[in-house]
Amino acid sequence: MTTTDASPAIVPNFDSEVGTGRKIAIICSKGNLDMAYPGLILANAALGEGAEVHLFFTFWGFDMINKKTMGDLKFTMLGNTATHMPQGLGGLPGMTAMATSKMKKSIADLDVPEVPEFLEQIVASGGHLWACRMSADMNHLTKEDLYDEVEDIISATDFIEKTEGAQLLFI
Amino acid sequence: MPVTTLNGQQIHVNEEGFLTDPSEWDEALGTALGAQIGITLTDEHWNAIRFLRKDFEQLGETPTLRRVSTVGGIPIKTLFVLFPQKPAKKMAYVAGLPKPVGCV
């Protein structure tokens, strides 16, 4: 066709057999801003590699899909030695707000979207969002309270069933 | 770096087959690269490819999927239809650019 026999073109193996059928399940159990991103970034990356991705939001991870909180996750220095600041500082009034806005800015500077928009991107890329039944019941929340693209509120058993054979990530 | 011949022209590629010198690319080569991975380029494909080329020219970096959608104005869903499974990599390959390095 377009190649010559003398030096055949090197073609990337985009659809390698190893890659097809890869399935990744990510359990998001935290509602802090800094703990929301790892799952979202990895889900997005996996989708870009052609994997089937399922996210399960449970316990505090519910804050990522609760319409009331999803756009307002916070980051706190308290209990986080990795900020390398005196822990006492974290407890001062206004520190969490300050740390949050600083982190949001660093994230936005990298052109990484905020949580709601990120979820939108994940869904547009073919990702599946599931809410945990027990967390919904504990907080008296229904599907109406959750981000519209959440497919359903399901039990832990349902999720395990849906993600049979998947590589699993608990965050 | 291997040298290979495609569409009757010699091109420099890396071990995966991505062009290492974007200036060796033209649209005819883009069509040939698309054919290599089983994609027949339509106007919609070209919209995306031309955005990649223009953006790379301006910033020296292959745009991520998100950038093609937010700046290039092509919805992510559409990109997954046009370049199935691995849109960011496939677009970069057809556009004769390196794989995007951004995480998102």
Task: Kindly describe this structure.
Chain A has a single domain, classed as Hypothetical Protein Ychn, Chain: A, CATH 3.40.1260.10. Chain A contains 6 helices and 5 strands; from the N terminus they run E-H-E-H-H-H-E-H-E-H-E. The relative contact order of chain A is 0.20. By secondary structure, chain B is mainly α. Chain B has one domain. Chain B is 46% helix and 8% strand. Chain B has 5 helices and 2 strands, in the order ββααααα. Chain B has a two-stranded antiparallel sheet. Chain B is globular and about 35 Å long. Chain B starts with a strand and ends in a 10-residue tail after the last helix. The chains are: A alpha/beta (171), B mainly alpha (104). The interface between A and B is medium-sized, with 29 and 37 residues.
Class from helix and strand fractions of chain A: alpha/beta
Q: Show unreliable segments of chain B.
A: none
What distance lies between the first and last C-alpha atoms of chain B, to the nearest angstrom?
28 Å
Task: Estimate the helix proportion of chain B, in percent.
Answer: 40-55%
Radius of gyration of chain B: 13 Å
Main sheet attributes: strand count, strand direction, barrel closure of chain B: 2 strands, antiparallel
Mean pLDDT of chain B: 92
Binned, the helix content of chain A reads: 25-40%
Total beta-strand segments of chain B = 2
What general form of chain A does the structure show? globular
By CATH reckoning, the class of chain A would read: Alpha Beta
Per DSSP, the total helix count of chain B is 5
Structural domain tally of chain A: 1
Which series of helices and strands of chain A comes N to C? Answer: EHEHHHEHEHE
Shape descriptor of chain B: globular
Task: State the assembly state of the protein chains.
Answer: heterodimer
